[in-house]
């Protein structure tokens, strides 16, 4: 099983739609979780950290389910500018390295 | 806003040549990383560096690779004898504590 697994997509959604991505991780003792955004040929940029209680930042909501070992990202009222690849990132316990998923590609259509 | 800076943005080198990729992490950060991303593939961990030594490295980071923090501000990745398969985007990152990592804009390495 891959350390961090994501559906590569692409998810093609109309403007204004709500879209959700899931990510599963294999190490049950993982300690930190993040969603990053990557535009084509650019560096990953932090979208949000994911906390155990779930957290929201504007149109973006992240949830963590430790029992099922997955994290989710919900984007409400999608904008054209949300088109990007969304990277799930996990720090396993006992390590300092950030493990990336393959990313989920989102295309928001006008 | 502080940022991680990398130079050069693009490097073309001949197979077998040595390359040095340079990074200036954010000044108060303590942990430094190199990652690479082959075109169309995921971001892969190469090495982490803390307290002036390597803390972890991946299988990719073999004897051809080395890292250095020569002067307290720069953080370099050296590839001794480049191969075609080393062609990729190389990202430097830094962080402080168990927080998010901040990535530089990357160096695109092309080995010909």
Shape by Cα distribution of chain B? globular
Give the end-to-end Cα distance of chain A, rounded to a whole number of Å. Answer: 37 Å
Classify the beta-strand content of chain B into a percent band.
Answer: over 45%
The level of helicity of chain A is under 10%
Largest sheet of chain B: 7 strands, mixed
Roughly how many Å is the radius of gyration of chain B? 13 Å
* Structure summary, number of beta strands of chain B: 11
**How is the biggest beta sheet of chain A arranged?**
6 strands, mixed
Q: Could you tell me the mean pLDDT of chain B?
A: 95
Low-confidence stretches of chain B: none
Radius of gyration of chain A (Å) = 13 Å
Number of helices, where a helix is a run of at least 4 consecutive DSSP H or I residues of chain B: 0
Sheet/helix structural class of chain A: mainly beta
- Helix coverage percent of chain B: under 10%
Set down the secondary structure blueprint.
The complex is a heterodimer of chains A (110) and B (112).
Chain A: E1 4-6, E2 11-14, E3 19-25, E4 32-38, E5 45-50, E6 55-57, E7 60-65, E8 70-75, E9 84-91, E10 99-100, E11 104-109
Parallel strand pairs in A: 2-11
Antiparallel strand pairs in A: 1-3, 3-8, 4-5, 4-9, 6-7, 7-8, 9-10, 9-11
Chain B: E1 5-7, E2 10-13, E3 19-24, E4 31-37, E5 43-50, E6 53-57, E7 65-68, E8 75-79, E9 88-95, E10 102-103, E11 107-111
Parallel strand pairs in B: 2-11
Antiparallel strand pairs in B: 1-3, 3-8, 4-5, 4-9, 5-6, 7-8, 9-10, 9-11
